[in-house]
Amino acid sequence: MRVALFLTCVNDTLCPDTGRAVVKLLTRLGVDVDFPMDQTCCGQAHYNTGYRHEAEPLAEHFAKVFGEYEAIVTPSGSCGAMVRELYPRMGERARAEGRGDSLAVTLAPVVPRTYELTEFLVDVLGVTDVGAYYPHKVTYHPTCHGLRSLGLGDRPRRLLQAVAGLELVELPGAEECCGFGGTFAVKNSDVSAAMGADKVRSAESTGAQVLCAADNSCLMHIGGTMSRVGTGMRAVHLAEILASTREEPAA
Amino acid sequence: MSGTFIGMPAFPQAARASVHDATLRGNLRHATHTIRGKREQAVAEVADWAELREAGKRIKDHVLRHLDRYLVQLEESVTAAGGVVHWAADAEEANRIVARLVKETGEREVVKVKSMATQEIGLNEALQAEGIRAYETDLAELIVQLGRDRPSHILVPAIHRNRGEIRDIFTREMGEWGRPAPEGLTDSPAELAEAARLHLREKFLRAKVGISGANFMVAETGTLVVVESEGNGRMCLTLPETLISVVGIEKTVPSWRDLEVFLQTLPRSSTAERMNPYTSMWTGTRDEDGPRAFHLVLLDNGRTDTLADEVGRQALRCIRCSACLNVCPVYERAGGHAYGSVYPGPIGAILSPQLRGTRSEIDASLPYASSLCGACYEVCPVAIDIPEVLVHLRERVVEGGPVIREGNKVVLRPAKGHAAERAAMRAARWALTRPGALRTAQRLASRTRRLRPRTLPGPGRAWSGTRDLPPVPPEPFRDWWQRTRGGKDEAK
Amino acid sequence: MSSRERILGRVRRALADVPGDDTPYEQAVPRGYLREHGERSTEETVELLAENLADYRALVHRTDAGGLAGTVAALLHRRGATSVVVPPGLDESWLAETDVRRVVDRAEQTPGELDRVDSVVTACAVAVAETGTIVLDGSPDQGRRRITLIPDHHICVVRVPGQVVSSVPQALERLDPVRPLTWISGPSATSDIELDRVEGVHGPRTLEVVLVTGLPSGTDGS
């Protein structure tokens, strides 16, 4: 199976560790993963801020770069949801605007082949125990697009529960948004910050050392809040936990 | 009289004050979290919730698709049952009709059932200008009216007030409006409810004109339905001699049978009850039982403009349950007043800019008053995809384009405040369709990473005021991939 | 142009872009939801009604045809009622054992007069087990809507099992939309203070429901 890593522009630029962790994890599980060098951005920020027409060329670029692969794996719930939920909608809107089927036809092939990382592990590879070792107390925050748009359900929790040494503790109010929301974080920064502060307080109340999630955008917001208020906690991407082993433990 | 929403600042400015108001935050957190858990339980009790939700959505879509036909049928049914139907294209016309009808009775005061439509059109203020006093009789509306306040929630307009504040308002204001609050009133909810009962009873018993909205209007039979809890609705609907109901045209349902869906989904979604204490259904007038005259004012006021938008029209499915407010993390922190409308919360953020247009600062900012977390869509009993409509309205704000206003096609210009953002989005799109450009930018960021400040200047402060910036890594992933051939040559 | 024509014209123009849809109403709405929730025997349905009524703070009493007059008398006595409003078509035998002053529901009564009456006794049209609801339809044994609204104490007699249905859909099937209908689920209540439910605002603050067996369940009240 030809598997492509769609890392996302944010991870590529700011969180290369997450990318390395995904590669390490998938390689360990016997997947030959490729990173198409022409990949850039799915267009989510454009689309969600109201610039759908600016997002269209990015979506077309995505379809061109990833069109040949049988599976496209991304460690981002929101970018995964962009492709799976919103690319079809972009096609429909273009059609409704009298621009024909071409956008819908271009985007259609990549939609069903795009998987968020935990979906790929659990549904495609059929594994929940990925042989990881992570001796820390961890709480899990389900990010909104993973939770509600993709319906990741208990996949991330099942993967975490199988990690040796890991103690998983429930996050109170887990399903409440952390307040990132893309451009919302700056356009409505007061509300966003208040939501982030509440999320961090909930996380602290668990006594966990690590808050983990499957989307680095939300983790930057939560982690940035954590370091600003000076908690001892860290925000870590799920992939980095799953990639960690006894031989090569994550920091 | 209650305050108005005219001249509201944009949402972020209005929300800033609420976020830092500890009492308000506490009141809202307590109330919304109380109802959230209860709603979940009430919904979990019915195994066919998904089917009820789908049926509710399809009934509303069907009505909207054939709204002209159903409105005509409704008019015929109501008229045949002894009612009089009036049509109001906008708020001003509706207010004029109601004021005239009240004057024709010779009365100078009216009792009111809580009604979103009459709040939307500012009926109380319009009646006051005509020398008619309108008494709000719903407990929360009474609190708002006595406190010269504005509503901040669809179901519980005084949700921003805690019991202590309510006690103070009652003690201070009730005497001005009628029977004063009992001596030594405490803040126990039961005592507060009792004080409202005593204060309003004299008004109910002498009222000659009642004004209401309606939750549903059945086209087939001409039946109107009001769903309530306190009994103030029953008082206003049955004791006066004249009843005037002002109802948005989208409240129509085709048949009697359709009520079986909404009478199951509405109470569980709004007050988290299997059934609300009182539901009144009436069809025209009835000899010797209830009002002798019944007037129905069918209100457009932006609804047909909303209907013309193929993405936005789903907002007209709303049954005003307020479940979306109660789960919304933004509403919980910003409070209802920040939305600058009688329709706050997620549904308000898509309704107000459609009913009123996006010209004002507040209306243009409402589509952004959401992190797009989707909790609202999840709980909506008629499956309104609120995030989808929010994004669609953002597009209308930044791109402009043709819309319908008051029945006429107008072409909106892109909103002024977004010029810099638009340029940035275009530049990003240009770079991001060229992998080489992205790579150059990434490398530049990595090379200059030690120069990165802890906080950002200008608009960047919106982030760095409360959150540290992530460190920029020494190399982007793509450079590592290329250097190590995907980790195969990883130098240890 | 009248506003009626203006609004109808706007609706038609607003829908001009929508593809034609001739799906008849009967087929436009999927009715895959349940007619009732769960399977119950007749007795279990009555039991569920009693539970749900009580859950929303109605006081539930059970008796048979022979005990009804005694139960009604006892409830009025316990309440300390000195007057009770009675719908014109109420079976007189229900009040045979009480000497509380009767006030007959009449068109000329003013709300102020009703406000001085302590209690009201009525029958009902139908009761809904799943929601703990009784529905009044203004039949002669239920009277005008206001009589069950102004007095502070309402005694409602439900003939079981005949008047009990499981669900809201079943209740609507039995009701006539032309009649003025009042659905009652517990005493009046409010959630307006901190979204917490408090019983007792404008409607009767005490609702007593008497579930009586052995009476014919004709809903026309005649």
From TrEMBL, chain A:
State what protein this is by name.
(Fe-S)-binding protein
Q: Where is the signal peptide?
A: none
Domain of life of the source: Bacteria
In this chain the Cysteine-rich domain maps to 3-83, 138-222
Question: Which InterPro entries has this protein been placed in?
Answer: Cys_rich_dom
From TrEMBL, chain B:
- Protein name, entry field: Iron-sulfur cluster-binding protein
Q: Which organism is it from?
A: Streptomyces composti
- Extract the PROSITE patterns matched here: 4FE4S_FER_1, 4FE4S_FER_2
Write the record's keywords in alphabetical order, separated by commas: 4Fe-4S, Electron transport, Iron, Iron-sulfur, Metal-binding, Repeat, Transport
Instruction: Write out the ranges of the annotated region (Disordered).
Output: 442-492
Every copy of the 4Fe-4S ferredoxin-type domain together lies at 358-389
Q: Which residues form a coiled coil?
A: none
Q: Which domain of life is it from?
A: Bacteria
Composition-biased stretches, type Basic and acidic residues, lie in 476-492
What InterPro entries does UniProt report for this protein, alphabetically?
4Fe4S_Fe-S-bd, 4Fe4S_Fe_S_CS, FTHF_cligase-like_sf, Helical_ferredxn, LUD_dom, LutB/LldF, LutB_C, NagB/RpiA_transferase-like
Cite the Pfam families for this sequence.
Fer4_8 (PF13183), LUD_dom (PF02589), LutB_C (PF11870)
The record's listing under Gene3D superfamilies reads: Alpha-helical ferredoxin (1.10.1060.10), NagB/RpiA/CoA transferase-like (3.40.50.10420)
Automatic annotation (TrEMBL), chain C:
The record's InterPro entries line, in alphabetical order, gives: FTHF_cligase-like_sf, LUD_dom, NagB/RpiA_transferase-like
Domain LUD per the UniProt entry, residue ranges: 108-212
Lineage top rank: taxon: Bacteria
Q: Please name the Gene3D superfamilies in this protein's record.
A: NagB/RpiA/CoA transferase-like
Identify this protein by name.
LUD domain-containing protein
